[in-house]
Write a structure and sequence with these properties.
The protein is built from 4 helices and 11 strands. The strands form 2 sheets. A 7-stranded mixed sheet has the order 5-6-1-2-3-4-7. The protein has a 4-stranded antiparallel sheet with strand order 8-9-10-11. A hairpin with a 2-residue loop joins strand 2 and strand 3. Helix 1 runs parallel beside helix 4. The longest helix has 17 residues.
């Protein structure tokens, strides 16, 4: 049986030259206020973020931007604009994609037959829950598709 760790390691090898996106963490400071600072980068594969050493579960995805002076029809729009501004204040470039609230996946637990984040072993096959409402699909097929999409978009 192919393990989740072997599949993820293979995906990282294939993605070596593909573009990465920023990983951020929220920080609060009395002097600098709330901001989202860069703590790394990862390849974004749908519900997964891969670094050379870790698999992460995605959470909030935003694009750093100046909120400007706009009228908002909804409080949620104002909050999203503020989150984008926090990333800009934290050092991300305008327009840069930032992942916040991600969590580390325990790949060893998955390899042992358990689950962590969106990964689990289903009927002996490493699998991924590709959406919160969706079912599981084999991790191998998911990675093949997502890696191919990322490489194709990077090529042109």
């Amino acid at each position: 049986m192919t393990t989740a760790s072997a599949l993820l390691t293979g995906a990282v090898r294939e993605l070596a030259d593909a573009p990465k996106e920023g990983l951020g963490e929220q920080r609060d400071s009395r002097w600098r206020g709330r901001r989202i600072v860069r703590v790394g980068e990862a390849w974004h594969l749908g519900v997964l973020l891969l670094t050379p050493t870790h698999a992460l579960a995605t959470a909030e995805v935003l694009r750093a931007a100046d909120p400007g002076r706009r009228g908002y029809t909804a409080e949620s729009a104002r909050e999203r604009a503020e989150r984008r501004a926090e990333a800009l204040r934290g050092g991300f470039d305008a327009g840069e994609v930032v992942h916040v609230g991600w969590s580390v996946i325990d790949v060893d637990a998955v390899d042992a037959g358990g689950s962590s984040g969106p990964l689990a072993v289903v009927d002996g096959v490493p699998s991924v829950r590709w959406s919160s409402a969706g079912g599981f699909m084999p991790l191998e097929a998911y990675l093949r598709e997502r890696v191919s999409l990322l490489l194709d978009s990077a090529a042109g």
